[in-house]
Amino acid sequence: MRWKALVAILLTLVCAGGVDAQTAARSVKVAAVDFIPAWGSLDANIRRLADAAEEIARQGVGFAVFPETAVSGYLFSDPSQIAPYLDTIPGDTTKALLPVLARTGLYMSVGIAERDAETGLAYNAAVLLGPQGVIGKYRKNGLNPQDQKVFAPGDTGVPVFDTPIGRIALLICYDDTYWQYARLAALRGAQIIAWHSVSDRVMPGTPAAQSKGDHSTVSNVQYMSAQNGVFVIGATRSGVETNPLTGGQLYYNGGSSIWSPQGHKLVQAPVVPPEELPPGLHGVYSAEIAPTDADAPRAERLALRRPQLYAPWLALHRSPVDANATKTQRKATLIAAQWPEGPSLMERTKPPKGALTVLPELSALPSGLSPEEIKSRAEERDGPFERALGALARARKAYVAGSYPERAGERVFHTVALAGPDGAILGRYRATHPAPSGWATPGDEIAVVDTPLGRIGLATAEDLATPELGALYAVQRTDILAAPAGAPSPLKVEIDSALFGVADPPTGRADFFPYAAAKQNQLWLVSGGRRAGDATAAGIYGPEPVVSTPTLTAAPGAADVRHQTEIPAVGTWIDQSQLIAGQQAQWFVPLTQRQDSACLRRWRTGGNCPGR
After folding, report:
1. Contact, 168 vs 192, CB < 8 A?
2. pLDDT tens-digit map of 439-457
3. Are 525 and 511 in contact (CB under 8 A)?
4. Which helix (H) or strand (E) is 376 found in, with range?
5. Pairing state of beta strands 454-458 and 28-36?
6. Other CB atoms closer than 10 Å to residue 582's CB: what's the count?
7. Which of 262, 294, 311, 385 is packed most tightly, with the most Cβ within 10 A?
8. How confident is the model at residue 211 (pLDDT cuts 50, 70, 90)?
9. Distance from CA of residue 528 to its chain's centroid?
């Protein structure tokens, strides 16, 4: 198994351009820039932008990322309002910047409200520039309701640009609501994702009925690095923006940040309250990185993918009016069991009637077993573990999920089973994305079970590091994902607690991958798990943890953590239907293609997949 993983990593490095001669290993100082444009002041903003580039170059920065719509402002209510402040690419902005870059050697990317020279349509775009000129541009795919007032959907796909400092992809703000665009960048061999944003919040004091759109895109950026093994340079702005024609206001709370390929934060700007600020440069947040340090972690992440499971589902545009979706609201009690390291406590567990309880993984076994010991204790389906799980569910008239090593001939699977109140096994799932060096044979399908609580999907917490799996469950309109976990993950939520509007932010305490899977797929996720010291893997993760739903982790000494909620999840600024409707699935075909497919090879070198 181990040699197969090494071969997959090498193939990914070669196919994705990770060993490209142009991107030789060297360190570069990169920066996320807080730059504030004056609303509707194109010429003056271009001058301020050129001055900012001069200043940043003097600080020894090699690559700088500026916010979205940096020469026009963002808050426009119709196409006629923004039309006078659009620029072409190349155009006046690039004409002013390129002499600065040629003189200083700086590379930069910046968000521009672009007018297409041929059609006249407006696009929310970002352009990558260097000392030799315009390198390339990207047009935003993930358009939020504000974007849709003035901008056409992007038509560039997700290009990755070779530069002397590394392979760079550009994304913009609301793109990070969707995991697919960062994944496409990684599949094309990106070492750096430059993310341009004006991460806005509603003004404090806004009535609840008018603040449903409150959200924070800058609070999403950790996943782009953690799931894909790339550096992320996320630039957003601060200050208050006022549209003088309508009186509308947004405030931008800062928080620009840079992230490592392991999903750790390297540097961050302060998160700030609303404040009227003058236009121009307001902060440079820098770190020294070696872009080729992304090649190995990116390859490891991509080697976990199993595209044969994703076709055709992840390339379909599923209507939000979906027959699979749960239609009527109902209450559900969710419980994540917490056990200390050591023996199984399955016999002591007392699930409440009618609730869903998720046990820690390998639920009948002690923690800390070696792979050989786990395999030696494998049992067949309908064996002692499933009978014990069914007996527990029947005795308590509850739903109970747990996992065990399942033997099927010579193969051993990590199988999650769900038992219902009558003791029957309602569904089984064989882990589809286990670690290549682990003990489990990968399974070949997901499992979703219709119950009175809602549509319950089954997974393992280990699987959740691969975002494609969560997306399969979203496509099948899963309401609750039961994902038994083992020991706490070393990667926690590192998003600044000041970005959260909920009472108890998950920063520093919640395992990151289940947190991200719940949010990215707009579902509830329940993981029973073990406690080790100050950390726990037992948690309940909601679909909108930044502004509305709690992220709950079990307290020290507690047997579990519990939450009662509405199913399907009540949306705020987004829900699962809106998430699916907003996806631009025409760009997702490469996600479903095998490593050796001609379509994927052509696409990775800049062609189309499928060919046109």
Report:
1. yes
2. 999 999 999 999 999 999 9
3. no
4. helix 371-376
5. unpaired
6. 18
7. 294
8. low
9. 22
Q: Which helix (H) or strand (E) is 80 found in, with range? A: helix 79-82
**First vs last Cα of the chain: how many Å apart?**
38
Residue 239 near residue 227 (C-beta atoms within 8 A): no
Distance separating alpha carbons of residues 132 and 149, to the nearest angstrom: 35
Handedness of CA 176, 468, 222, 500 (dihedral sign): positive
**Residue 514 and residue 464 in contact, taking contact as beta carbons nearer than 8 Å:** yes
CB under 8 Å to 474, separation ≥6 — which residues? 520, 521, 522, 523, 576, 579, 580
Mean pLDDT, rounded, of the chain:
93
Q: Residue 275: helix, strand or coil by DSSP?
A: coil
Contact 455, 466 (CB under 8 A): no
Average pLDDT over residues 58-67: 98
Whether the pLDDT of residue 612 is over 80: the answer is: no
Compute the average pLDDT of residues 467-492.
97
3-state SS, one letter per residue, for 525-585: EEECEEEECCEECCEEECCCCCCCCCEEECCCCCCEEEEEEEECCCCCCCCHHHHHHHCCH
Helix (H) or strand (E) holding 408: strand 399-408
Report in angstroms the alpha-carbon separations of 574 from 125, 132, 355, 570, 580.
23, 42, 26, 9, 10
Q: Please state whether beta strands 539-541 and 551-553 pair in parallel, antiparallel, or not at all (unpaired).
A: antiparallel
The residue to which tokens 């409707």 are assigned: 581
Contact 504, 381 (CB under 8 A): no
> What pLDDT score was predicted for residue 1?
39
Residue type, 218: V
pTM across the whole model: 0.95
Tell me the C-alpha distance between 510 and 222, whole Å: 13
Total count of residues recorded for the chain:
612
Give per-residue burial for 322-347: e unless 16+ CB within 10 Å, then b. Answer: eeebbeeeeebbbbbbbbeeeebebe
Tell me the C-alpha distance between 558 and 552, whole Å.
Answer: 12
| Beta bridge pairs of residue 563 | 334
In sequence order, what DSSP letters do the residues of 210-267 get, joined into one string? Answer: G-TT---SGGGHHHHHHTTT-EEEEE--EEEEE-TTT--EEEEEB--EEE-TTS-EEE
Structure tokens at 217: 């895109």
Other Cβ atoms closer than 10 A to 370: 9
Of residues 488, 482, 485, the one with CA closest to residue 531: 488
Kind plus residue range of the DSSP H or E element containing 414: strand 411-419
DSSP-derived 3-state class of residue 592:
helix
